[in-house]
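chain below, 585 aa
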Amino acid sequence: MPTTGRRPGATAPNPAARAGRRSLVCLVLCTTGGALAALALPAALGTALDRALSDGRVPWTALALCATLTAAEVGFDALVTLLGGTSTAVRAARLRTALLDRLLRTEPRHAAAHTPGDLTTRLTANVAEASIVPVALAQTVAGILVPVGATVALFALDPWTGVALLVGFPAFVVLLRALIRRTSAAATAYQHEQALIATRLTEALDGAATLRAAHTADREHARITEPLTRLAAHGRRTWDVHGRAAAGAAVLLPLLTVLVLAVAGLRTAVGALGVGELLAASRYAVLAVGLGVLTGSLSAAARGRSAARRLDTLLALPAVPHRSLTLPPDGPGTLELRDVAVRRAGQHPLTGVSFTVPGGTSAALVGRSGAGKSLVAAVAGRLTDPDTGTVRLDGVPLDGVAPERLRHAVAYAFARPALLGTTVRDTVTMGPDRPTERALADALRDASADGYIALLPRGADTALADAPLSGGEYQRLGLARAFARGGRLLILDDATSSLDTVTEHRIQRALSRHAGVRTRLVVAHRATTAAAADRVIWLADGTVRAVGRHTELWRDPEYRTLFTAPDAPSGQAPAPAAPTGEVTR
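prediction:
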């Protein structure tokens, strides 16, 4: 795949992004056009009145201009409403796409630092609020243009009326500044509590069976709703800020309007202003004190900026870097780890891990809980990068292979697979390539899921919501998804832990049929799984203690305790004293 010159993780411009920019530009133009029409109308009305009084006849031309300006103002306002909604929707779609893209391009551990509830809040409510910011700012510009233009027009009509208007401006600026600062602080606190509630609710939904079994639903309800008191307080604080600003504007602005009109009336009485100019001055006074409409747009912008700061942490997640290296097309799938070390929160869960799995063979990762088995499995397929050391597949460093190519070469199955899609077929065939019907049938058979699928109302086309799944059935569908994909390396991260012994034996036989075709790296907890592998990689305290055949390692009493000790995984069958039989290579 040729390089594009873009930075890693960058996405190409898309039609939605261009449409969003066009909508925003049109919105600015329409708000400006509406503002200019509103500013021109009082002068046109004053001119029409002066001509009617001086000529004694109807000034049709001036009236036509007034009608045109009125229609233009109404039309521009309608377009602003339409374009504002369109621009906000497009920006929300772009933001969600960018956030999801960043979450999917970063290492899973970075995304996992945020709870599902918090991510849901950021991708829904926070995106909606942040998407309003450009529209709110565009409307704010127009909201400033009209009062400023009206003030200039007042000075042009009569400097004294302009001075009268400026008397109250400092107080209004203080009012707006306090509104923005307090709204931003209240919105930030409100969004934090909102995310906390979503996080606790998501946790409760995931653990509904546990809560029911423990009979702690009332306690969990209290834990979920506990932040509501603070949420309500922050909400009331927001409305209190708005109310105080509205009350201040309601008192200040009418007084300011009366002051301007009083000065204009006095200037008319002494002959400094004509009747038409008095009408224009009265209209400009109303437009000038229209800074009050800024409170709504400024508050929306303040809330949106607070939400945007929460999104910035996700947009700043580092994308997994890569180069443009390619894997040899006929590579057997040889996996090599050399001096791999991983640091997490000041700890070293992996140190100096080195081993090789020849192409087409199988290797079992064994060790006590916390030895680093799943972390090695993640490093082996580049779900995470080591801090030092190298990982190679057929001689090519994994950090040099583009993710799109790497995912064609490496397939994963997990202890708790995520079943995505609408139907069973969707979740099994999810991947960079859609497998054929034959490949799908073979994968379901190899995962011992074909019998379960046959009992569903519509077979593989049954909706996931209508397919009751046990823990073992979840794992079998996850295994089928891994089997259905091609590729040279298959990694099973504790992917058979919920299966009974008979079913796991069938899976092992299916895996043996991949010998010579796919390299298999299996996180193993059962002696039978380790015995079926061509080699065993024994991990202890984050490093490789030994590599060899299961029959060889079994002579070590400490190795035997991995499968016979009381803390061995639940359901662990005792290992035979001396495993016999040849392993299919």
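Residues 60-105 form the longest helix (46 residues). Residues 106 and 317 are 6 Å apart (CA to CA).
thats it, cya
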